[in-house]
Amino acid sequence: MYDKRISSGETITFVFARRIQHAPASFLGELFRVSSDPSIISFAGGLPSSELIDTEGISSAAQDVFKTDPRTALQYSTTDGYRPLREYIADRYRSRLGVPATADEIQITNGSQQCLDLFAKIFLDPGDLVGMERPGYLGAIEAFSLYEPEFLTVPLNHEGPDTVVFEKTMKEKPVKFFYGIPNCQNPSGCTYSQERRKEIAEILSDTETVFYEDDAFGELFFDGTPRLPIKRFLMENTVISGSFSKITAPGMRIGWMYASFEILKEFNIAKQAADLHSNFLCQQILHRYLVTNDLDSHIRKIVSVYRRQCQLMCDLFDDLMPSLTHTTPEGGMFLTAELPSGLHAMKVFEEGVREKVAVLPGMPFFVDGGGTNIIRLNFSNANEERITEGMYRLAKVINGLSSKKS
């Protein structure tokens, strides 16, 4: 039948799975289009600084791998990942955060984004309840939506999730897991206070809800001080996903899941079915790089640059657009700003592109609607000169649109 329809020039109507119909429309295509125009200063993406990638160090590590045992590095490997790299990650948890991680509790993945997909795959049936921050990370919303859950959101403030709403939701509903970003949250840049972390752990301690702790930005605090993870206070019911994308090179696509054996057993099955294993060559190159270079020194360099760029962006907001309120991050790569009343984020995006500056409208971060008065800005991927010029362009857009409203 299909051959006949093709030869006759008819259009085939494909019957896709129901789950793909539940995936929210992605704004990424528009972002890629904007980012490909070099004349546009883009604060819309989520990229770390390309200038801060240690290309020489990684190149040297790659050459070393090819000199020593290239055939092993280029062969198939185990699904759970290169054990020396898993041991390195576990050791860093123990030394930095005082969390008793072992290599057997670490699973290497294709970036921490794959953790979102595989974790949802092994936990969610259609209609299951998932808790999230409001606003929440759009990549998590997209990944989880494919498994057709019902989202329950908890408002986020500068201390973390609203504990009154959080406790009521967790105690009254059979929530499979709550997904949060305690460190330098995406999109807001907010960081949970230490007290709020303990409160969340205490609330969840007598429930069956798992806390999914996304820690993509925990190494990027401007003061260089690590914050204790929620897993420190709730060992059994917390999993952590991490990534080397923000501190080494995103193109290597190396992340990990830190979880109990019971969870990783199922997670490993799902990963094996998806891709057999993550890029083994990149795992070996990354490990060689980590053990032959001073990662902490490299991170301090990154943080020093991001601190200045974030402060500059905040100062320019205050000077050029005083009618806006914005978050003031303690680290990470993002901040959000609230637009004046009556000004729509999509209008700011569209007019911004015409003025050669791009920001990300807030709507994709609100799974239950909202965000029309919010914009997210990335301060890590533009140098100080481009941040200054871009903020002047943005001020022209916002002040111009605001004057039309008045």
Q: What is the 3D form? A: globular
CATH superfamily of the largest domain: Type I PLP-dependent aspartate aminotransferase-like (Major domain)
Largest sheet data: 8 strands, mixed
Predict the CATH topology of the largest domain.
Answer: Aspartate Aminotransferase, domain 2
Summarize model confidence as the mean pLDDT: 94
Task: Please identify the structural class as seen in this structure.
Answer: alpha/beta
CATH architecture of the largest domain, by name, is 3-Layer(aba) Sandwich
Give the number of domains.
2
For the record, the CATH class of the largest domain is: Alpha Beta
Catalogue the unreliable spans: 1-5
Strand order of the largest sheet: 2-9-8-7-6-3-4-5
Number of separate strands:
14
Q: Using the CA coordinates, give the radius of gyration.
A: 22 Å
Distance between the termini: 61 Å
What share of residues is helical? 40-55%
Strand content: 15-25%
Q: Number of helical runs?
A: 15
Order of helices and strands: HHHEHHHEHEHEEHEHEEEHHHEEHEEEH
Would you kindly provide a written description of the structure presented here, covering whatever features stand out?
By secondary structure, this protein is α/β, with parallel strands linked by helices. It has 2 domains: 2-53 and 297-405, Alpha-Beta Complex (Aspartate Aminotransferase, domain 1); 67-292, Aspartate Aminotransferase, domain 2 (3-Layer(aba) Sandwich), CATH 3.40.640. 44% of the residues lie in helices and 15% in strands. The protein contains 15 helices and 14 strands. It has helices spanning 2-7, 18-21, 28-35, 55-68, 70-73, 83-97, 111-123, 138-145, 163-172, 194-204, 261-275, 280-292, 295-320, 345-354, 384-405; strands spanning 41-42, 106-110, 129-134, 150-157, 160-161, 175-180, 210-214, 238-243, 254-258, 325-326, 334-338, 357-358, 360-361, 374-378. The strands form 3 sheets. The protein has an 8-stranded mixed β-sheet with strand order 2-9-8-7-6-3-4-5, with helices on both faces. Strands 10-11-14-13 form a 4-stranded antiparallel β-sheet, with helices on one face. The protein has a two-stranded parallel ribbon with strand order 1-12. The chain is globular, with a radius of gyration of 22 Å. It starts with a helix and ends with a helix. The model is unreliable at 1-5 (pLDDT under 50).
